[in-house]
Design a protein that fits this description.
- The complex is a heterodimer of chains A (118) and B (109).
- The model of chain A has no long low-confidence stretch (mean pLDDT 89).
- Chain A has no helices and ten strands.
- By secondary structure, chain A is mainly β.
- The model of chain B has no long low-confidence stretch (mean pLDDT 92).
- With 109 residues, chain B is mostly beta strands.
- Chain B is 0% helix and 44% strand.
- Chain B contains no helices and eleven strands.
- Classes of the chains: A mainly beta (118), B mainly beta (109).
Chain lengths: 118, 109
């Protein structure tokens, strides 16, 4: 079946502009994550959503960053007033929580959105 | 503070040589640890998890709570193992992960 998809694949914007990044998780996956991948910084956790629970926003670096997940499916990461240090690859991942005793927590990653802020 | 450390940014080994990618963690709870791999032009994907005690593509990783380590090992490296490897820790009872900064493995012919 289809994997996690992200759009756009590349985004070039000017400093100060707002951007929206989209993630379509695997159908039926209840958990959705956003990460930022910067050169030399590895993967930085931003936010995750799990079902109808309140999202864990503890990784968002500033109040310029926000994310929402509509209908338990598609998610949008919004960066307002972009800065050059926001340039990175933004990765989305989703995972399925099984109904049994063992949580199936393998994360399936999307291809990422490369954001360049000029 | 919770932390995952991968001390090597780049590790180069010759084909057929043993390889060990180091991962150390700092976590107050009972850790759940994973290795993820990203091959060139491919998506990041799960390689293995400690709870399964599995061997994937010849790689194994043992959780050593005394040394707070989860090193990834393979006895005989292959060229196709060249990739970026990330160690990850999952917070117990949550869906939050922290990743290390990654180690790029280059297997030389």
């Amino acid at each position: 079946g289809a994997g996690v998809s992200q759009s756009p694949s590349n985004k070039v914007t000017e400093k100060g502009k707002d951007v929206e990044l989209r993630c379509d998780p695997i159908s039926g996956h209840t958990a959705l994550y956003w990460y930022r991948q910067s050169l030399g910084q590895g993967l930085e956790f931003l936010i995750y959503f799990q079902g109808n629970s309140a999202p864990d926003k503890s990784g968002l670096p500033s109040d310029r960053f926000s994310a929402e997940r509509t209908g338990g499916s598609v998610s949008t990461l919004t960066i307002q007033r972009t800065q050059q240090e926001d340039s990175a690859v933004y990765l989305c991942a989703s995972s399925l929580r099984s109904s049994g005793g063992f949580i199936t927590d393998t994360q399936y990653f999307g291809p990422g959105t490369r954001l360049t802020v000029l | 503070a919770q932390r995952v450390t991968q001390p090597e940014k780049l590790l180069s080994v010759f084909k057929g040589a043993p390889v060990e990618l180091k991962c150390n963690y700092s976590y107050s709870g009972s850790p759940e640890l994973f290795w993820y791999v990203q091959y060139s032009r491919q998506r990041l994907q799960l390689l293995l998890r400690h709870i399964s005690r599995e061997s994937i593509k010849g790689f194994t990783a043992d959780l050593n709570k005394g040394e707070t380590s989860f090193h990834l090992k393979k006895p005989f490296a292959q060229e196709e193992d060249s990739a970026m490897y990330y160690c990850a820790l999952k917070f117990t009872g949550t869906y939050k992960y922290i990743f290390g900064t990654g180690t790029r493995l280059k297997v030389l012919a």
